[in-house]
Amino acid sequence: MSSRIYFDHSATTPLDPRVLDTMLPFLKGGFGNPSSLHEEGRVASAAVDRARAQVAALISAEPEEIIFTASGTEADNLALIGAVRASGKPGHIVTSTIEHAAILETCKFLKGGGTKITLLPIDSDGLVRTDSLLRALQSNVTLVSIMAANNVVGTIQPVEELAHLTKLHAVLFHTDAVQAGGKIPLDVNRQHVDLLSLSAHKLHGPKGVGALYVRKGTALGPIVFGGGQERGLRSATENVAAIVGFGAAAEISRRELASEPRRLEELREYLAAQLKHRFPQSYVFGHPVDRLPGHLSFGLRGQEAGLGKMLAALDRSGIAVSAGSACSAQHSGEPSGVVLAMGYDAERARGLIRASLGRFNTAQEIDHFLDVLSSAVSSLTAGHGDIHPAEEAFA
Ligand code: PLP
Q1: In CA terms, which of 67, 107, 110, 199 is 20 to 30 Å from 272?
Q2: CATH homologous superfamily for 5-13+259-381?
Q3: How far is the CA of 199 from the centre of ligand 1 (A)?
Q4: What does the pLDDT average to over 22-51?
Q5: Where do the structural domains in the chain lie, given as residue ranges?
Q6: Do 5-13+259-381 and 17-256 come out as alike in CATH topology?
Q7: In the CATH scheme, what is the code of domain 17-256?
Q8: Above 50 in pLDDT, residue 328?
Q9: Ligand 1: distance of its center to the CA of 389 in Å?
Q10: Whole-number Å distance between alpha carbons of 304 and 285
Q11: Is 107 assigned a catalytic role?
Q12: Which of 327, 328, 370, 386 is catalytic?
C-alpha cells in the first residue's frame, strides 16, 4: 500500500503498470508518424489501429467508428459543435442541468451563435426526467446529450430508455460516458447511441487522450482543421503512445468488467455501511441503486461549513478525496451546481465529500479513511481545526 490513500478516481486514475508497459516502446524507439508510408510509420499506424479496435470493443462499436481526440472535453466539443455544424443550421440542443462543464460550456458557446439550448431538470436522485425529455422532443431538436453517469454524485442515467425515446423522434443521441467508460457495461447498439465520449485517464489510462464514437452514417463536421487524420474529423499527428495506452486500458477494463465493478460495489457498500454506523449524522447523495460502482458522495450534518478544513486535514493525513468534481479547484467554496439542481439547499450542496474508489483500493484503506475522518470530525467539532498528530502516522 502506498503511503497515501487515493479515493479520487472520478477526478483521475493512476496509470495501470500494464498500460505503461504497452506505451513505453512508443515513447522510446517507436516514434513513427502513422501517416508515413515507411516502416516506422506503418508500425505506428498498426499500433493506432489495434488501439482503435480495443477502444471500440469496450462499447461494442466498430473500430472505424472511433475518432481519437486529445481529451474527453474535446470529444464532447466535437459531438455538439460537430453535429450543429453538419446540420447547417443553428439548431437546438437538449441536455441536462447536471452535465459536465465540457457540455454546458460548449452549449453556452453554441447559444452565442444562435443555437437553442434546453436544459432538462433532474429529480432528487440525479435522474433526468423522462417526461421533460418527451416534452422537449415535441419541438425541432438537432441533438440530445445526456451523460451516462454523473461525476459529482455518481448517478447512472437510463441511457437506453432516453436514447430510445430520442430515436422515436429521429433525433441524434450523444452520451458523455467519460465517467461510465470501463466502469459499467456500455453497448452503443443496445443503447441506441449515435455519439459517445470517452477519456483514457478515467480508466487507468494516460491523460490527454479521449475518443468520440461516431455511429456510421452520422453527419458530423470537424472542429480542428488540418491534415485530415481521424477520417477528417480530428486533424493532427496522432499521440501514438497515449492512444496505445488508451487501447490497453480499454482492453483491461473490458476484461475485468465481469469482476471489478462487483468488487468496487462491495467496497463502496462497506464504506457506506461503516459511514452510517460511525457517523449517524451522515447522509448520501445520488441514486440509492443506479450509481457508479466505486462512487460515494456524502455529507456530514453540522460539518458542511468546515468542509475545506476537513479536506485539508484529510489531505495532511495522507488521504485524497474531493469536494465535488475536479473542476471545483477553479470554483472552490461554491456549492455544487449538481446538488443544487437535485433540490438540496446551498449548505448541503457545500458539504459534499466525494469518495471515488478504484482498481487498487482495499477494504483496509477504507478502515484507515474512517479512522482519520473520525479524528478530523472530533477535532473540528472541538474547534481545533486540525487532527491529532498521532492519527497522521498511519500508512
Ligand atoms: N465529462 C465528464 C463527465 C467528466 O467527468 C470529465 C472529467 O472530469 C470530462 C467530461 C472531461 O474529460 P477530460 O478530463 O478528458 O477532458
Answers
A1: 199
A2: Aspartate Aminotransferase, domain 1 (3.90.1150.10)
A3: 7
A4: 97
A5: 5-13+259-381, 17-256
A6: no
A7: 3.40.640.10
A8: no
A9: 36
A10: 14
A11: no
A12: 327
